[in-house]
Amino acid sequence: MINDILKYGIMYVVLVLVQVLLINNVQLGGIYSPFIYILFILLLPFDTPRYLLLILGFLLGLTIDIFSNTPGIHASATVFAAFLRPGVLMLISSRDNYEPGSAPRISTYGFEWFLKYAVILILAHNLFLFFAEAFTLHGLFHTLLKAIINSFLSIILIVLSQYLVFRK
């Protein structure tokens, strides 16, 4: 239990630092920047209670908002992704297939399963984030394109991290 709290605490800090110190400072085309911090919500254990998912999603998004000087946009988008997570897990496979205490990993559940899981949550997160940021339907296709490209970049980084960092 203490080891898990320490492990996820370190993951939280590292993902926030990588996001705000490295990735936010590298933008492609001036407007495209992937969001790797959502990986924290993706990799929490299956049996994490819903209330804890929402609280951790809020704290994670708020931390990114503080460093990015965005007024609650990341917090709301991350809470939205955390809210959708149990439903997405039920959608892509039954809850009986998950071992208690285990977490979604590409090494455990395979590339195809993890890709479906990640694509749905990352796309939902980014769509919510960019439409909340724009707060208008004017420029709908531009906002949609921005969300899709950022999602694609985020998915690439997150899948790569599964092979390079989170192999176990």
TrEMBL record:
Coiled coil stretches, renumbered: none
Transmembrane regions: 5-23, 29-46, 51-67, 73-92, 113-132, 144-166
Look up the record and give one Gene Ontology term from the biological process aspect. regulation of cell shape
- Signal peptide range equals none
Q: Does the keyword Cell division apply?
A: no
List GO terms (cellular component aspect).
plasma membrane
* InterPro entries membership: Cell_shape_determining_MreD
Q: What are the protein's UniProt keywords?
A: Cell membrane, Cell shape, Membrane, Transmembrane, Transmembrane helix
What membrane topology does the annotation report for this chain? Answer: Multi-pass membrane protein
Its family remark reads:
Belongs to the MreD family.
Q: By what name is this protein known?
A: Rod shape-determining protein MreD
Say which species the protein is native to: Prolixibacter bellariivorans
